[in-house]
């Protein structure tokens, strides 16, 4: 089963991807993980991507696509995969389809985690992370700025500050939101309400995929 998961920042893609990956025993491939993997392996396109990142630039579509082709060719993807953060725009989606078609493959389902922008801002501005162990917390439930797991300092990430979130949502609306229509037109899109509790979101996804 070859899957794509979509949704605004803060919709819970990482959390639900972990559930899907474990339950269906397929690799969870996120854009960040994919880039880190290629860079760590020092592949040709990995080194090219690293040069863009080190210079503070976005990695171009053609480099991302080349890294994705390398990653999807690995053995653990033979029985399926879950893509998180890719494709990020229509160009990448169309090229992904062409890439998979060469191997008689296709995306079977796209899952869109639906959430209002106001809820995204609320969720992300309330998120705090341990600087030491990277555990994630909700500021409203924390009693201190010390991590209860490791004693590390609890901080707000730069990309969880409200002005940055608004900017990220603008980019999402312009570039990534059109993917919802793209996959819907192919009749492979599942819409899931991401405003409900995490377990309810997972149960809905599982029920749809098991069909």
Secondary-structure topology with pairs:
Elements: E1 2-7, H1 13-24, E2 28-30, H2 31-40, H3 44-54, H4 61-72, E3 81-84, H5 90-101, E4 109-114, H6 117-125, E5 127-130, E6 136-138, E7 154-155, H7 162-176, H8 178-185, E8 189-193, H9 198-210
Account of the protein in words:
- With 211 residues, the protein is α/β, with parallel strands linked by helices.
- It has a domain at 2-26 and 79-115 and 175-210: P-loop containing nucleotide triphosphate hydrolases (Rossmann fold, 3-Layer(aba) Sandwich).
- Helices cover 48% and strands 16% of the residues.
- The chain has helices at 13-24, 31-40, 44-54, 61-72, 90-101, 117-125, 162-176, 178-185, 198-210; strands spanning 2-7, 28-30, 81-84, 109-114, 127-130, 136-138, 154-155, 189-193.
- The strands form 2 sheets. Strands 2-3-1-4-8 form a 5-stranded parallel β-sheet, sandwiched between helices. A 3-stranded antiparallel β-sheet has the order 6-5-7.
- Strand 5 (127-130) and strand 6 form a beta hairpin.
- Helix 2 (31-40) packs across helix 4 (61-72).
- The longest helix is centred in the last third of the chain and has 15 residues, at 162-176.
Compose a concise summary of this entry:
The protein has helices at 13-24, 31-40, 44-54, 61-72, 90-101, 117-125, 162-176, 178-185, 198-210; strands at 2-7, 28-30, 81-84, 109-114, 127-130, 136-138, 154-155, 189-193.
